Amino acid sequence: MNHATRPLAALLACAAVSAAQQEPAAVVRTGLDVLVAARFEPLRGRHVGLISNHTGRTADGRGIVEVFLAADGVDLQVLFSPEHGFEGLLDQARIDDATHRSGLRIHSLYGETRKPTPAMLEGLDTLVFDIQDIGCRFYTYISTMRLAMEAAAEHGLRFVVLDRPNPIGGVAVDGPVLAAGDESFVAAHTLPLRHGMTVGELARMMNDERAIGCELQVIAMEGWQRAMLWDATGLLWVDPSPNMRTLTQALLYPGVGLVETTNVSVGRGTDTPFEIVGAPWLDGRRLAASLRERGLPGVAFVPVEFVPESSKHAGERCGGVQILLTDRDAIDPLRVGLTLAWALHRLYPDTWDVDRFARLLAEPEVFAAFRTGAYPEQAIGLWQAELDAFRARRARYLLYR
To answer: 43 vs 76, 81, 90, 115, 128, CA distance in Å?
Structure first.
C-alpha cells in the first residue's frame, strides 16, 4: 500500500514515530534522572522534605513533585521553596507559605525565615535539594542550600543533593574571593564571584569547610563534563528565576549583576535583563564609546533607550547600552562588569552611586583601588593570588572531569 492509499491515522502515527525518533535525547542525566533510574533506592523508606522549585524536573519534562509522589517507598511530606517561590514567578522581597497543587504544604524559605525551623522539619528524616543554580556567588539558591544543610545537621536529618549542571561551565573561575566572616544571603561561602562548581560540589565544600557536618549524599549527574555550557547538555532551558531567561544572560550575570545594587537599571522589567544597562540620567552614546575604548573581547556595546516596566526606574525612559555577546569563548564577564562600573564612575562621578558597588563585589581592597581610578585590569590583578588558593581548595570537592 502506498502513501496515497494508507489511512490518514496510520500516516499520522508514522509521522509521530518518525518525529520522536529524530528528537535528540539529553546528553546529560541530572541527579533527579539518575535517582529515577535507580527506582529511588537511596530514598526508599525515608520521610522526605523537598527543597525545590519549577527547575526540579526530569529530562523528559516531568515535575519533581509528581515524580516523587509516584515513587514507591518514598514518603514525601512537605515542600520548601527558595527566592521567587516554588513556581519561580515571584520577584519580590518576601514570599509567604503556600499550598502546592498536589495539596502539599510549601514552606517559604524567603519569608519570615530563610532556614527551616524545627516545626517545619517535624516528622522528617531526610531533606532533598534539587534547584538549578546559575554559577554565580550572589545567586541566592546556594545560600538556601547552605542554611538547609545547617538545619539538617542540627536535627539529625540526612541531606541529599540531586546535582544539576553549572550552566556557564565548570572550568572558568574568576573574581575576588569572599573573606571568611563576610558571608551573607548573597554570599553563602568563601567563593569567588564565578565559582565554576555544581550545587553538589558546593554542598561537599561547604559541609566540610564550614564544619556543618550533616549526613550529606550527592546524587551525581551522568554525562556532564566541566567544559560544557548549558547548550551542550541536551537539557531544556527553564528560566531559573524571572529575570534569568537565556544562556547569554547567565554568562553576563557575574559581571553585569555587580552594578545592580547601584542606581542603574540592569534591564529588569524589560525583555533583556542583564543584557542592557541604563538610567534616566545616562547618555548611552557616551557610555558605549567609553566602553569600546577598552577593547573588551567577546562583546560589543550598542547605545539604546528603554523603559523598564518594573523594578528600578520603572516607567522612566533610560539611556544606556545593550551588551552584545559576539564570542562566548573570549568573553570575560568579570572584566565586562568592572569596565562597566569604571566607565560609569568616570563619566558620572557625582551621579552614579559608587558606594553601593561594594556590596556584591565584597572585596575592600579591590573596591578601594577602583574608587581611586584604577583601570579594571589593575583591579583584576589584585585577586589572582586568592583565586589560585581557591582553585587548590576546590579541587578536592570536584565530582566531574
So the answer is: 10, 20, 31, 23, 9
